[in-house]
Amino acid sequence: MVLLLKDLYNEKYIELLCQKISHVYPDFKSIAFKKAIFNTQWREYELKERMHHISTTLGEYLPKFYSEVINILCLIFTNMNTNHRIENMIFQDFVEVYGLNSFDTSMKALEVFTVNSSSEFAIRQFLLKYEKKTMRQMLLWTICENEYVRRLASEGCRPRLPWAISLPAFKSNPASVLKLLDLLKDDSSAYVRKSVANNLNDISKDNPQLIKELTKKWLGFSKERDTLLKHACRTLLKSSDSEVLALFGFTQPTNIFLENFIHTTSLRMGKELEFSFDIVSPVALGKLRIEFVIGFLRKNDKHNKKVFKIAEGTYCKMNKTVSKTYSFRPISTRAYYRGEQKLSILINGVVFKEVSFTLD
Q: How many domains does the chain have?
């Protein structure tokens, strides 16, 4: 049986939490707290609902003074933060729920709670309410010795952080975010640099020209920075932006031909689309980015394109054979609709083949 993420919040974890709290705060009513947690709606709650339910209920069973509660929770978190990275995000959620009017105390708490976990969701409420003040704090975090805290500085101000509220001010004007990312672009931690890349990728969706100019400015300094920038430009690369492709060496393909193309013309729901082809040239193929695009039929009879990378590299030979499959097994993140779908082959952003196939 597959363990759902929401089931990380279970009786074992709540029992451990109660033990840790009682050790620090002997007046904690563990029995009443557990009864309140496992209410009649508990089984229906999803991951974030369970997280929020636990954090808000904690507030009803801990002291009324926020600073006193934070001292208790910091002690507990320090003793629990090794093996419960996801579950322990209830601590950050508590700050988000109860600490919005206690800025300094909350900043210190989120700095503690982000280690071996992440305060990236909770910090966003403070950015919305105290943008400049919170960004000043995050600038200070960029020079912290702990990589989790430096990573929070970058991850927390992403304009389009997944599963989180967006930050409209930073979507329209990311200047203050870019100032912060500039300080972290050559960070010693790959964990931090990946966060910087993800933030830049977010910015590229609303301000593509800004990221293009920044990439031109930053590119070529080091292998690590170039890797960061390529990850940051992944949306622009997938959109076949010729200017960005050229920046990373994927120039307009010349003397390249696609031959022996074979593909499944009809398949049933749950089966695999199969296709293969040869890339040939009278000279060495050179640096290529090979992708396929599926135009998925939507409910409104229009097609929604999704780009998938096949391979990327510098090829010294004059030919390359490609064989690929795509599964139409039902998944929770994408709905498939029966009817005509589209398949395209891209090389360095240029469409070399377009065909249709039927999903029955």
A: 2
Return d(Cα 261, Cα 258) in angstroms, integer. Answer: 7
pLDDT at position 2 over 70: no
Which DSSP symbol is given to 138? H
Give the pLDDT score at 80.
82
**Distance between CA 122 and CA 91 in Å, rounded?**
10
Asked whether residue 162 is domain-assigned, the answer is: yes
State the CATH number of the domain containing residue 200: 1.25.40.290
Cβ neighbourhood burial of 11 (10 Å; 0-12, 13-18, 19+): exposed
Query: Could you give the maximum distance between any two Cα atoms of the chain, in Å?
Result: 80
The answer to whether residues 272 and 240 belong to one domain is no
Torsion of CA 204, 206, 208, 210, to 10 degrees: -90
User: Last residue of some domain: 229, 247, 265?
Assistant: 247
The answer to whether residue 252 sits within a structural domain is no
User: In the structure, what pLDDT confidence band is assigned to residue 332 with cuts at 50, 70 and 90?
Assistant: confident
Assess whether 95 and 186 both reside in one domain: yes
- Is the pLDDT at 345 greater than 90, yes or no? yes
**Residue 165: which domain range?**
5-247
> Do 353 and 224 fall into the same domain?
no
Burial grade of 314 (CB within 10 A; 0-12, 13-18, 19 or more): exposed
Those residues whose C-beta lies under 8 Å from the C-beta of residue 36, and which sit 6 or more positions away, are 57, 60, 61
Backbone angles phi, psi at 48, to 5 degrees: -70, -30
Instruction: Return d(Cα 232, Cα 190) in angstroms, integer.
Output: 14
- Which carries the bigger pLDDT value, residue 2 or residue 43? 43
Measure Cα distances from 348 to 204, 248, 345 in Å: 20, 10, 10
Long-range CB contacts for residues 26-35, cutoff 8 Å, separation at least 24: 28/61, 28/62, 29/61, 32/61, 33/57, 33/58, 33/61
Over residues 142-164, the mean pLDDT reads 97
Closest CA relative to residue 197, chosen from 188, 184, 212, 213? 184
Yes or no: say if 259 and 281 are a contact pair by the CB < 8 Å rule. no
